[in-house]
Design brief:
The protein is an alpha+beta fold. The chain has 7 helices and 8 strands; from the N terminus they run αββββαβαβαββααα. The chain is about 35% helix and about 10% strand.
């Protein structure tokens, strides 16, 4: 039987499931028509949706562990609770990403009070300050992800945003914030609100001297934007070094081409669909351990 994520039906939560045509190309001229994307599942029972999403959140942590995005006890992914949207689920402080199960997750309110969850009832203060501010500022955000990944935090020492130099980075065209302040470990509400304000309506932020932050209307999209952004940081670090070595600059993609490509690779549905294979593989490799 196919994994659950491979059998979901199309949803109406997104404006379009059609892939745009190449610039200047009509539908009649296109030799091959891209099929409609599938979409995330829809639920009529919010409690059933909660259980499903908690399983997906646990899978997201296993994926972060697989990609080596964990760094000691740093890093967190949060899920807005579909039953009580003013609360969110998060990983317990000090539990390794690669060991997190559905039953380990803890739910907290807007004041940082732990309402329910697994046996380890420890809340990372930085996780609460950042994610609480983001979830309150962005009602559209279902999931937010942050960790101290190696290439992301390296690129974030440069104090600049990414160049639009290849197809994948077009997903962040006019959709990537740069937060240019660092005041130590984020423990103050003001810092969390400043990060949320800097993020604005965008899908991701480069936190200077800190790391990456991504958000999504689904868990899968938030995870994919993080995975992809980390690789884009890595790519630019390599490309800039190679270009500097020969006394040149990287070639940038034009505004029109970048905007067109964004419509294919940068939408919420594209983020969900890009992540689906990752979740399918983690379900196969890890079995149902994380679902316990």
């Amino acid at each position: 039987m196919a994994p659950p994520s491979a059998t979901m039906t199309e949803t109406e939560n997104y404006p379009s499931t059609e892939v745009p045509l190449e610039i200047g190309l009509t539908e009649k001229q296109a030799k091959v028509q891209m099929p409609r994307f599938p979409g995330p599942p829809e639920f009529t029972d919010k409690y059933e949706e909660r259980e499903y999403l908690k399983g997906r959140l646990a899978a997201a942590f296993r994926l972060f562990a697989k990609f080596n995005f964990d760094e000691g006890v740093a890093g967190h992914i949060t899920l807005r609770d579909p039953v009580e949207p003013q609360t969110f689920w998060v990983n317990p402080f000090g539990v390794a990403f690669g060991m997190i199960k559905k039953s380990d997750l803890i739910r907290v309110d807007e004041e940082g009070k732990i309402i329910e969850g697994g046996p380890v009832r420890l809340l990372n203060a930085a996780a609460f300050v950042i994610h609480s501010a983001v979830h309150q500022a962005r009602p559209d955000v279902m999931c937010a992800a942050h960790s101290h990944s190696i290439y992301g935090r390296t690129f974030c020492t440069l104090g600049k945003t990414l160049d639009i130099t290849h197809q994948d980075v077009c997903a962040y065209h006019n959709d990537l914030a740069l937060y240019t302040s660092f005041n130590g470990v984020v423990l103050a509400d003001k810092e969390g609100h400043n990060i949320a304000t800097s993020l604005g309506s965008k899908k991701a932020a480069l936190l200077q001297n800190h790391g990456l932050l991504t958000v999504g209307q689904t868990i899968e999209a938030a995870v994919w934007w993080f995975v992809c952004l980390e690789k884009c940081c890595y790519t630019q670090l390599l490309a800039d070094a190679a270009a500097a070595g020969k006394g040149s600059e990287t070639v940038k993609i034009g505004e029109e081409e970048a905007a067109y490509t964004y419509k294919t690779v940068g939408t919420p549905l594209a983020g969900w669909f890009q992540a689906k294979p990752l979740f399918d593989v983690i379900e196969r490799d890890e079995g149902k351990d994380f679902m316990q």
